[in-house]
Amino acid sequence: MDSERTRQIELLSAGEPERQCAAAETLGSGEPDEAVIAALVRTLQSQRWKTTWYGSTPWYTAVARVAADALVRCGAAAVPALTSALACGDHFDLPVPCEDQGIYIGDYASEPIYVAALAAEALSKIGAPAAGAIAALVETARGGAAPICAACRAAVLAIGTAAPAMPGLSAALLELSRIDHREERYNFARELLKIGGAAAAAALVLIEDTVPFVRMYASAALVNAAATDPSVVPALIALQASTRPEVVAAASDTLAKIGAKPQ
Question: Model-level pTM?
Answer without folding.
Answer: 0.91
